[in-house]
Amino acid sequence: MRAGRNALFLLYLAIPAAVSGQHAFNPEGSFDGRVPTPRSMLGYEPGERFTPHSLLATYYARVAAASPRVVLDTTGRTVEGRPMLLAIVTSEANQQRIATIRALAKRLADPRGATPAELDQAVRELPAIVWLGYSVHGNEASGVEAGIAFLYQLAAGQDEETRLMLDSTVVLIDAVQNPDGHERHVQYVNRMTSALGVQSSPAALINDGDWPGARTSHYYFDLNRDWFVQSHPETRSRIATMLRWWPHIAVDLHEMGSSSSYYFAPPMDPVNKNIPTTIWKWWDIIASANASAFDRFGWSFFRREGYDDFYPGYGDSWPTLTGAVGMTYEQASSSGGAIRRTDGTLMTLAEATHHHYATSYATTLITARRRTERIRDYLEFRRTAISDAERAPLRQVIIERDAWGRSDSLVGQLLSDSIEVHRLTSATQVRNANAYGLPRPEAATFAAGWYVIDMAQPQGRLARALLEPDAQLDSSFIAEELERRRQAIGDRFYDMTGWSLPFLFRVRAWWVSSPLTSLERVARLEAPALAAPADAAYGYGFAPGSDASTRMLAALLADSVRVWFAPRSYRSGGLDFPHGLFVVRTALNDATVHAKVRRHALDSGARVVALSTALAEEGTDLGSNSVFYVKPPRVALAGQAPISGGSFGYAWYAFDQRLRYPFTAVNFSTAGSAAIADYDVLVVPSAAAGALNTALGENGRRRLGEWVRAGGVLITLDAATTWLATEALGLSRFRLRTDSLRADSTGGAPLPATVPGAILRTRGDTLSWLLAGVEPAEVPVLYTSDRVYQTPKDLRAGEVVLRYAQLGELKLTGYVWPEVPERLAATPYLWTERVGQGRVIGFTADPNYRDMWRGLYVIFANAVLMGASR
User: Fold this and answer.
1) Which one, of 549, 498, 506, 434, lies nearest residue 778 by Cα?
2) What is the pLDDT of residues 729-765, one digit of tens each?
3) Domain range holding 714?
4) How far is CA 714 from the centre of its chain?
5) How far is Cα 577 from Cα 488, in angstroms, rounded to an integer?
6) 597 and 698, same structural domain?
7) Other Cβ atoms within 10 Å of 438 Cβ, number
8) Which three-class secondary structure state does DSSP give residue 744?
9) Do 640 and 608 share a structural domain?
10) Under DSSP, is residue 119 helix (H, G, I), strand (E, B) or coil?
11) Does residue 292 fall inside a structural domain?
12) 704 forms bridges with which residues in the sheet?
């Protein structure tokens, strides 16, 4: 919400008027003395200390109260309840017409239907909108301090350059993009600061941080990878705000290794092919301005190395794909406030803050000076997003509306990105439709109600980047990477190379060159109207496989309702469950069962039906011995070193936000102690096998083995599955291949072969309870390692649940090294094995990774909720 002017005026009255202000990074400047300086409010200059969130919020509010140039918004709240602060800074005259400015920005963002004269007038009247986002990583804190310094400059500066910036731009200062992580960093540094000053040794605890560090969000996610996923309230509020303003410049200010200098765009290769050449032009223009600012002080910097712009989920790439000039700025970190670098010099927080202040100033100033040109190029970006798509081979993407609701979830994500979606109003036949995952076009019939996304729209470049079957990499870039690899030079893949949304959501999709007609616009997704089931004579049934039914199962188990699973098909009285069903038997629950089922059905959105009998007209009777009781599991999630904080956070988020099932986060050492007896299921997130073995020791591994054999369920994720596959743990016949994916070089040394994140095809055992409701049993998965597993010679039925596809069918999207497909094809992805009365389940990659893999969520949920019952 926008802070009320009346409330802020009271704060303004409490501020004593000073004769003049001053600025630590602009000591010769002239400033309005009525605007509080950072020192007057904080007690120190920006960069002298790390500013906690409460003090940051107070300073921003006081500046907004004192300066008519500043309005303060609270755009949302974090998971921990901290406000997301956005300072809107521009001239007094622009503040008076801010609603008009936003309307003009929206008009240029969608130029369809406007006359050339209307668009020309909008370009003339609109200030350039500059978004400055500080410190998306909590421990990259110099950005927050630079934001304070730049806010004061704009709010109080009296010089001509400041007035030009205010007259020609609206500056949106995102004060701290990750308040929860930033606060963890500030409090840790404050706790570790010595009375004798900051300890600058790289080995000092203040420069280390406690597990898992403050870089990430409340759930230990990297928010700089969440832009199109939008799993977190910080990202959702940021994007919703950005889509209200439609900025023309978007800067994401970060930190990097302490011994580096300073990076600004242009980025290195690869750059997403949906980014047009006009953006490259502006990267160079702004880089020149930043370089001039740094040259005044003799500061070093670099461009075109270290950071790419390929993955569309960054804080620079997502805005760029909407038409803004998106840029990452990376400052060498001061860590705990001062750190000795490899060259013997000291990097301080004050120096780092000054650098970020300088680029904030230079970027805004050059944008103000070239306002009209920047806005005209932005308008051209939005126009050509339409016209270029009209001539491109990939014109529309069609998504089947599935019975499990995954396509609805995908469309909901697109709508939150302001991507237009339509649905077919009648069935349509197409002769040459290109199905995702198939090599050649074929005839297809698309049913009424299926979704259609036309790339010929103002957000078309973002839509294409998210939906195209494979993101294009230049052959020259790949050739260079292969040569670098041969010479043992590190690769330039900064992040995953495959993310096409239909694969992530596990939905069927096609693309076509000729646009379909008979469409209607999807304005919003309406939740299906579900009636609570009538009181049942025999019980209640609901199908497996959807997010809603999984939440329903989790809620019933947590509420002490007894549930059974019938894994085979069932049909009776017009009710058809071809993939089995979960059953709540009324006779074996107490009298509250009817009310509980109704409540949880409405809360979860699951379709629950009343069953009058156990008799099946087709399929298996519900009293069959194949129907098993689902024991409510007591779940522990292992954390702390040596567990990966990211993998822990992904699982934590899955339990809290997707599954909504109670669990206990425990220290990994609990796995080797008597306390493990309090749990039925232990989930071990990614970690190195050697570190896990060392952390438990021989006695701990023995005790864990006893727990599993007595009925416990051990679930390992990603690298932790290499630990499950060790002889030292002694719980599985499953093994890591002794020959890794490393290829032989001509010189005899093995070549590194870690795949930079590709989507591969797996095929499943349709009889496995782990794949309950997973239809079809062809599952796209992420591969981002060099690990390959092998099955034992005495392989038993049901142990390999998901297996990588055969050689010619393996790759769906993304880049893999040449030798990978042959070695990985037909090897296991998901393994399970009975061990005494218990069970082990090994995911060879992380099914919860970044909350992106919505098609894998139900498989992880089945493992957790039903593992103790099988």
Assistant:
1) 506
2) 999 999 998 765 556 555 555 677 789 999 999 999 9
3) 635-869
4) 27
5) 55
6) no
7) 12
8) strand
9) no
10) helix
11) no
12) none
